[in-house]
Amino acid sequence: MKRSSYCGDVREDSIGKDIVVCGWVHSRRDHGGVIFIDLRDREGLLQIVFQPENKEIFKIAEGLRSEYVVSVKGLVRKRPEGTLNPNMPTGSIELVVSKIEILNTCPGLPFEISDYRETSEELRLKYRYLDLRRPNFQKNFIMRHKVANEIRNFLNDESFLEIETPFLTKSTPEGARDFLVPSRLHHGSFFALPQSPQLFKQILMVSGFDKYYQIARCFRDEDLRADRQLEFTQIDLEMSFVEENDVMDVIERMLSRVFKNVLNIEIKIPFERMSYADALLHYGSDKPDTRFEMEIKDFSAELKESGFSVFSSVISKGGIVRGLCIPKGASFSRSEIDGLTNFVGEYGAKGLAWMKITESGAESNIVKYFKDEKIKVIISKLGAKSGDLIVFLADEEKIVAQGLGALRLKMGKELGLIDKSKFNFLWVVDFPLMEWDKEEQRWQALHHPFTSPQDVVSLNKENAGTAKAKAYDVILNGIELGGGSIRIHRSDVQKKIFDILSISDESAKEKFGFLLDALTYGAPPHGGLALGFDRMCALMAGEDSIREVIAFPKTQKASDPLSNAPAPVSEKQLKELGVRIVVKQAKV
What we know:
Layout: E1 18-31, E2 34-41, E3 44-50, H1 55-62, E4 69-78, E5 93-104, H2 121-126, H3 128-131, H4 135-157, E6 161-162, E7 180-182, E8 190-192, H5 198-206, E9 211-219, E10 231-240, H6 244-263, E11 272-275, H7 276-283, E12 297-298, H8 309-316, E13 320-326, H9 334-345, E14 353-358, E15 361-363, H10 372-382, E16 389-395, H11 397-414, E17 425-429, E18 434-437, E19 442-445, E20 471-476, E21 479-486, H12 491-500, H13 505-519, E22 526-532, H14 533-541, H15 571-577
Parallel strand pairs: 3-5, 6-9, 11-17
Antiparallel strand pairs: 1-2, 1-4, 2-3, 4-5, 7-8, 9-10, 10-22, 12-13, 13-16, 14-15, 14-16, 17-20, 18-19, 20-21, 21-22
Helix pairs in contact: 4-6, 5-13, 7-11, 9-11, 12-13
């Protein structure tokens, strides 16, 4: 019997027709001599009816169990009145079986094939082939395919060329830890798996392919969390003869098309733009979630000369004071406020000052240090109302921003302030070009050392801390979806950046020599961006973890229970590679 339709695709226009469907037994019900099964394939469920008059087929139906694989032929008919299921796309029809073939059986399952995910992740990943049968899971991967298809179609229409870059390349330890691959032909030497195609896509621009893209596999040997995996996928693109606005325009139109054609959601373009400084000031993060208000406000100027020595002392030493209004937070108990203090302490904050706003004014043990005019300014600036709680952090800017930013998100989630139906996009721009590394006592590139500065001419070591980059991150609902920049295309500018970063000519040549050489051979101005494809699909599917949109992910312990990877290899293989395993001695 050759399949003529997917189960989930059958509709009322097939009534009266004989069709053949194949799939897995999702559930079985015996209703007074008539047996019903829901047959499942990747497109959905179809109710199959076995009638007792056909004794041979009915006997087979009595032996069907969950996850048996069957092929059935039968007549499509409208369901009887009172039995329609409006919750199923196929809920108005059913298939009356005239022929069945059991293609395979299935033993008892380690967990039920359903959309409930109470099973441990270790067990789910060990039996990933069963886990992936879940209907909602399959919808995720069908959606992922559609997203990739829309991206390819859009970029092809925009005259981009899809070009693959190498998986085996040279280690350039400037970012996360590389995965290293020993060379059999060159003992003692190693390839590295790419953390991104950054250097190669720039070389493609030097080569004259002025619009490149790739749905690229990337690898980073780093600790895992919900939005990280050892291997991941990014939408990588690069363009020649462009500036920031050109790259951002392409991304906005691409994302607008993807959301419209895949989710039928209209995305407003152009996206809002926010400076890095404003993002840290008002949201405490360079990836602000703008789905709810609750903005952070700076009070350093207003409280510089307050009677509260904690604030005035911090400000006099170059620190800052910022505040956040928590709606209806005045009802929090002292122990709950202590819990908030402990929470911001995880970000380095030494304490949390607070005021409860009531009908009669502000109440707390610090109110006595402030004049009424100052308190009115604080309340007005934060838009606080009776019943709200105002909290303050005073410290160096990084600690204050991170602490209040994390507290803002925590409160937004716990108080139900976030509208999860929204997709809020924005660009964060005007990033610092560099940041000071206290440990190494030198400047580090905030993004990567090939990012072009906004002002090349006046840049030097003395003003590196205030220099801005031609860089841009696209943010969706508080998640960094991707980032990019205009690149340095002139070797003299690149050398200037390396000098400020204290990267010697010898070190630069050793790490990036092939790119630096390429820049001397007529490199055009160019820039690009990489989007996290897994993150994007997880957000579109409403999932909290990218593991729910990756077919075969690793656990948080960086292992694969399905294949038992990583695993030891034979001595013969190690000898061929010139590699010897050194066993770590346990500390006594």
